[in-house]
Design a protein that fits this description.
This protein is elongated. By secondary structure, it is mainly α. It has 5 helices and no strands.
Length: 147
Amino acid sequence: MRIRVRLITTTAAVVTAMLLTGCSSTPAEELEDWWSSGGESGVKALSDTSGQVNAVSMRPMDVWGTTCQELLTEVKKAKKLDTIPSENARGFWTEALTTFEHGGNECVAGAGAKDEPRASAGIREVQKGIGRLASAVSLIRGDLEAE
């Protein structure tokens, strides 16, 4: 009985030590994991939908709200991702999400109320977010290539 208890205790200690030391990874590996486990698809979805918002800004206002709502859906998904491991890109990523969310909300509210100045202001904010997203992606790619 004592041997069994010691064996279980020893096994638990070994497994715990392996988990604590074996799971450590470099920042580059953490970023690669983030990128491959949803980061890349999240970036692409945000890029595509924010680009669509930019494109519809030249069309009649009745299509703005739907397109901005699609962007808000992608922002919500992106916010569910783990925190981006790249300290270089984290600020731009956070700014992009915040700008997309605020601009998207203003666009949807303005379009719903037939308030073109408000909806246009929301779209302009989304356009600023596109630049923040591009900066984040550039820094992420630089960090991934530096591996």
